[in-house]
Amino acid sequence: MDYEFKFQFKPYHNYFKQPLRTSHGVWRVREGIIISLTNAKGVTSRGEIAPLPWFGSETLAQATEFCRQVGETIKREEIMAIGDRLPCCQFALESAYLGLNQSSVKNEVNEVQNLDFCYLLPAGAGALTAWSDLVRDNSAITFKWKIGVLPLKQELKILQQLSSVVPPRTKLRLDANGGLSRSQAEELLSLTDSLPNIEFIEQPLAPESLGDMYRLSQSHSTVLALDESVASFRQLQQVHQQGWQGVFVIKAAIMGYPRRLIQFCQQNALDIVFSSVFETEVARQTILDLSQQLVHPRALGFGVQHLFQAE
């Protein structure tokens, strides 16, 4: 008989120190749900539902309604039958289940601390000074800077300054969140092709402009990465089948069952970067643990904790 796990859930609200500005708009508070499963031995494991509806996940209201409908108990077969329209719920429930049943997935804390992280800088000119607060020594470090927020001409000037003031071993990732036009992307790439410290540009064009993304990647030396274009597991499969040769930015917390995602990445040897959706430590730890099963030389996109208010 499939054991019924005790199920509980609790909403959370985490406020940013300063509103986060992207081409999707202004974000002031990260809301989500912490769920827990308890087995017959009384052992409890947690998972996190961290929706990102503008990336195509369920809304917080839909996730909350799902949790209410679950009731007080849930079986493993019910966890694995959650529909793809609820990818964050799939992630949270299977994460908690794996925490109970696959302790080998877990890593020691000191191992996780040795991972390289990419740290998010504020949009606009604030990046020119914010980076120095995150550099502790002369070691290599990776920063991510949101673009497509200010007029492009202004951002190009800031980028030239930023590229010149950061330490020599610094890598810069630019994230447009799909907010540029084809002509703007060409103008940006004309500059980044000449800058030595650009690691890649993330999603310069909207997801529906994937064909133009392919053409840009072939005509410029700057590496391009897909994010919004691979926001769901189905999209990831489709884009890979179409032959994308660049980087895949993976927001695991919104991509459904984590074990399915890891298996697909392993089987296809994708060039990936695991990226945060501003989740709490619950989902963050799950993703960092899972990431250890893959070979990924690029810094993980989880340097965001400094953006939140202290609890």
Structural features, described:
With 311 residues, this protein is an alpha/beta fold. The protein is 34% helix and 24% strand. It has helices spanning 60-70, 76-79, 87-101, 109-113, 127-130, 152-165, 182-192, 210-219, 233-241, 258-268, 281-291; strands spanning 4-22, 25-38, 44-49, 73-75, 117-121, 142-146, 171-175, 198-202, 224-226, 247-250, 272-274, 300-303. The strands form two sheets. An eight-stranded parallel β-sheet has the order 11-10-9-8-7-6-5-12. It has a four-stranded antiparallel β-sheet with strand order 3-2-1-4, with helices on both faces. Helix 10 (258-268) links the parallel strand 10 and strand 11. The chain is globular. The chain starts with a strand and ends in an 8-residue tail after the last strand. The relative contact order is 0.15.
Uncertain runs with pLDDT below 50, 5 residues or more? 103-111
Name the shape in a single word.
Answer: globular
The major β-sheet equals: 8 strands, parallel
Q: What is the number of helical segments per DSSP (H or I, 4+ residues)?
A: 11
Strand content: 15-25%
* Largest sheet: spatial strand order: 11-10-9-8-7-6-5-12
Which sequence of SSEs, written as H and E, runs from N to C?
EEEHEHHHEHEHEHEHEHEHEHE
Structural class comes to alpha/beta
**How many runs of DSSP E, i.e. beta strands?**
12
Task: Kindly report how far apart the N and C termini lie.
Answer: 42 Å
How confident is the prediction overall: mean pLDDT?
91
Tell me the helix content: 25-40%
Oligomer: single chain
Work out the radius of gyration. Answer: 20 Å
